[in-house]
Structures are given as structure tokens and as C-alpha cells.
Design brief:
Low-confidence stretches: none
Shape: globular
Radius of gyration: 19 Å
Largest sheet: 7 strands, mixed
Number of helices: 11
Order of helices and strands: EEEHEEHHEEHEEHHEHEHHHH
Structural class: alpha/beta
Number of strands: 11
Strand order of the largest sheet: 1-2-3-4-6-8-11
Distance between the termini: 29 Å
Strand content: 15-25%
Helix content: 40-55%
Mean pLDDT: 96
């Protein structure tokens, strides 16, 4: 797949666009010498890249990938953390949180392409995405309690939303690593592909999503996210508000016209 443009955010993060997929952005974790361990600088770059992506109306789908052959991301940079004083750790916390919330709050659909190790904060970055595509080499887990902390990048909240409270408790409390087949069975990942095909599979899925209305995609994501966990009546009100936000849009008019004229829609994106 031909890269047509690349924008760097610091040393360790890139956003790439590809020929024939102009509406799909690839957000690349690119710190291979450390297996993408998230340092303070890398966290700051992830947040900056997400801010730029969120403000780009041309991006309909974001795919989160890794440049390392054997790992998606191994979590926080514990070597850096080991050098921190207590005061420095407190000061660093907002920067770390901004990376995870940056991915979580992207307004368009997001897909994580996972291979190899996705542990701790690495798995939390994947959990922050809407869909996780993993290959047969994937090993996921939240091992934080084994080093005296807890999942702090959203794991204690995102994991039970995927697999239920009891299963999430078992995984967090044991700190165990879960290999690809079991991860798919438990719902820790959504789609399992052959080794080395996670990025390809995620970008292909992103292209299928991006063929749809950008206005519809963002409104649907907002309804899904805001409605989750509400009682049915409140959830339906969230859905109705999202429907009203798109019902009179240019995309809705174009979608209906294209359907009746038996042609592909040309989305105005508004």
C-alpha cells in the first residue's frame, strides 16, 4: 500500500495517508527500539496527533498501527518511570492520560491493528478504539497489578464494557497474558486474522467504513458511546438527538438521492 503523505508528531508518532484511501488515516506508533513503550514524549505526541485528526473533516476512519514487527505496544515506559520522583510522576500523569483520552475521544470510528505484545497501556490504547483487529501472534493483557499499580489508561473502565465485570476482574487481578485465540473467544479482540495481516485487515475494514457518510459515521459513534450504560429510555433519547443532528444534513440528502438514482453517493460531509 503506497503512502502518499506522512506527518510526524515528535520522534515517535506518525500519521500516514495512502493511495486510494484518502479518507482513512493511519496513526502509527513508531518507537521500535523500545517496542513502542509510551514515554512522556511519546504520550505527548499521541495526544497531539489525535487533536489534529479530530479537527480534520476529511478523516472518516482512523487506524492505529505499530511499526514494530513483534509488538503493538508494551505499555508505559517503566525505565523512564523508574527515574521519576513522586512529584515528577504526579506531574506526568495528565500527559499520560491525554494520550489515552486522545484516542478514546476521536470523533470518527477507530480501529486498532494488533500483533505481538499489546500489554498494559498498549492494550489500553487498543481498548480505546471502537474495533480491534488482531493477528495470530497477538498477546494482550493488563499486568499492572504485578508491578504495584492498576490499569490507568482506561483499562478498568473499558475492559468490563467489553467482557463484563467478572471476566475483567479475573484478567486484571491475575495480570495474565492472553494469546490471540483465547482473546478472540473472550471478546478482548473483535477480528482475528493470519499472522502479519492485522494492519492490512484493519485498513481494509477502515476503507469499508469510510465509504459511508462521514456525518453519519461520527453521529453513530457519538450515539453508541454516549448511550452505552444508560437505561433504554435515556439511550433512545441520545439516539434521537444524534438522528436529529444528521436528518437535515447534506449527507442525508445525498444518500437518499444516490439510492434512488442507483449510483454511488458523493458525500458533501456536512
Amino acid at each position: 500500500m503506497t503512502v502518499t503523505s506522512e506527518q510526524r508528531f515528535g520522534e515517535f508518532v506518525a500519521v500516514r495517508r495512502h493511495a486510494g484511501q484518502e479518507h482513512v488515516a493511519e496513526l502509527v506508533l513508531d518507537r521500535p527500539k523500545a517496542m513502542n513503550a509510551v514515554s512522556t514524549d511519546m504520550a505527548r505526541s499521541i495526544a497531539a496527533a489525535c487533536e489534529a485528526l479530530g479537527a480534520d473533516p476529511g478523516v472518516r476512519v482512523t487506524v492505529l498501527t505499530s511499526s514494530h514487527e513483534r509488538a503493538f505496544c508494551v505499555g508505559a515506559d517503566l525505565k523512564e518511570r523508574n527515574s521519576f520522583t513522586d512529584a515528577e510522576l504526579v506531574r506526568q500523569r495528565p500527559t499520560a492520560r491525554a494520550a489515552y483520552t486522545g484516542v478514546l475521544e476521536l470523533p470518527m470510528p477507530t480501529i486498532a491493528a494488533v500483533h505481538g505484545f499489546a500489554l498494559g497501556g498498549g492494550f489500553e490504547l487498543a481498548l480505546a478504539c471502537d474495533v480491534i483487529v488482531a493477528d495470530a501472534t497477538a498477546v494482550v493483557g493488563l499486568p499492572e497489578v504485578s508491578v504495584g499499580v492498576i490499569p490507568g489508561g482506561g483499562g478498568t473502565q473499558l475492559l468490563p464494557r467489553r467482557v463484563g465485570a467478572a471476566r475483567a476482574a479475573e484478567l486484571v487481578f491475575t495480570a495474565r497474558r492472553v494469546e490471540a485465540a483465547e482473546a478472540r473467544e473472550l471478546g478482548l479482540v473483535d477480528e482475528l486474522v493470519e499472522a502479519g495481516r492485522d494492519r492490512e485487515g484493519a485498513l481494509a475494514l477502515g476503507a469499508r467504513m469510510a465509504a459511508n457518510s462521514p456525518v453519519g459515521l461520527r453521529a453513530a459513534k457519538k450515539a453508541l458511546r454516549l448511550g452505552h450504560g444508560l437505561d433504554l429510555r435515556a439511550g433512545l433519547e441520545v439516539e434521537d438527538a444524534a438522528w436529529r443532528s444528521v436528518a437535515f444534513s447534506g449527507d442525508r440528502a445525498e444518500g437518499v438521492a444516490a439510492f434512488n438514482e442507483k449510483r454511488s453517493p458523493r458525500w458533501p460531509g456536512e
